[in-house]
Structure prediction request, 66 residues.
Amino acid sequence: SPIRGTGRWRVPSLRGVGGNAPYLHDGSVGSLEQLFDPAREQPGHRFGLELDAQARADLLAFLQTI
Prediction:
């Protein structure tokens, strides 16, 4: 809703995100590992791609727990 600042987008919960592939609005990314891979070729959604290898591994491990 506009009151929550989301406009028309329905933002899904992160609960169970590790098992909810594919990712991105068009389903173009098949795994969380691919989503945070700096070599990913899909444009946009660049958040997390500059993480070092340990931070990326930590983020992926965390996302698998929720």
